């Protein structure tokens, strides 16, 4: 449809000139007599032209002859009500019109026409009170005209179809909802609609809040609204109760919330924490009502109380803990750390803003104790390997029959979201906020500087990630399969209007935007993951609990760190979009098999002993004549026995002739040899020796006692070497 010019888009001429009518609120004697002596409807109409002619003019606005009979019934009902009340309709209240429309004796076919007269002649504004919503489409056609109403409805219908809505979805109640907005606006042109009008209409027609939100997406697609309404009639954050807290403390908390630049969710949670600190003050330190009254002693008391806090204590009146399974259990370490962060941030901000002058240092006197920090270390919750591999397979092989019954997103869109989740390692918020054209091809080959290998063009692609929680916008390399699925979705993606990025404030076209809105924040957890689990034949929980979007991010990072020659911690930090490697550690899980392999390797190395080979003796031929050329380093001495590994005294050398102390002349000469090379030799341990290695001293003493009469390599026993001394 052609766009209207700027003048007609805003202005709609009222179809009747009300100034031409005599709108006196009282009946004349002639009118009273004509109405009292009612015998013939035609004669009454002729006798009260001041009252009848406006009604006739309203009827003349309808072009269809079939509607004249219904107009006549409405006119008769109005004149009869004038007779009963002895007041002209010009003087009726809004409620009087509602009572007439709802009167049980009024024919149903006449109700809309009575409402049309009230709307056009008497500024009737309670249209939402007349009855069911489906009445309104007919009322809109009566008041604004069939042609104009259908034209505007068609324009909006086409705009909604372009962004993904189907004809079936738009048939039910859609004309009535549009009529409700037109009637509230008292102007049928779409260009005259604004956000305030839609919000006002949604309050009056709360049952149709979703439909009015849908209508706003069409208006945004037409460029009439800068952005659509939220699809549900969301209210602001639930106001938290300040009951039982010093009013001055509550004022500081609320003022901080209104001033803080933190993200809304973080700001609200911190606001809750600092309010609860006010509850503690009221119970323990009622004399302290302002942040300026806090001292070092107060901080110490607060840390001690928080360390012993249980779930359900310091409870705001506006929060209901009923049904919490962990009620009465000690507060978790991470929760304690969050409370202390909120308190430090609160005190720091109000001091920087010049509201108070503190008597303590928040960062020192409210620092998180080490006893709590030790319990808050990294605890990666990566998905079990066997689950994760099947989910990756499922994301690459989704089919139309895999869609769950309640999913109405296009299959190509679901595939793209699934592959991005399993291959890109993004946060849920980052996936939702990806922009159109975010996947760029790798057109040139890449040479790996560390290995010298060449990565062929097209092996990877670059994914442009918007600014997130901890990092500015950046590009990350991912598998080329990601771009393939994104390109397939972009090829069929309906044209969508621009939306505001809630984090950056930019007007952008989101990649996963459909029907004028992005996917919901719970779409991945509640829609995508259950669908992938069903495809892979898996439950939605693994050994560590419910599978979630963020656990998938941890699995992607862990996979890149666990493979042979995997990415370094610094590279993973940049790939994940973290500012610090410490953050990345919260995503990398050390697999049990990987740990076992590392232990086995280290355990094998722990059984190696250093061997010195005298290459001079080997080359000269002295070794062939029986001269020693191999020396085992025993720490304080060398053993020249080439079969030391089979000697029964190797764990506690008895000091036979083969033993060369390092501090002896021969030992020092041996260490000074230029052609002495050092090697490692594996020593197989007997079961008894294994127990000794593990620290079993009783086994060591038993072995020494057992070997005291066993001959050494030179023929003497330890008893003979050391005399009567027990080894």
Automatic annotation (TrEMBL):
InterPro entries: DNA_brk_join_enz (IPR011010), Integrase-like_cat_sf (IPR013762)
Entry keywords, A to Z: DNA recombination
Gene3D superfamilies: Intergrase catalytic core
GO biological process: DNA integration; DNA recombination
GO molecular function term, any single one: DNA binding
Statement: the UniProt record of this protein carries the keyword Zinc: no
Protein's UniProt name: Integrase
Organism expressing this protein natively: Methylomonas koyamae
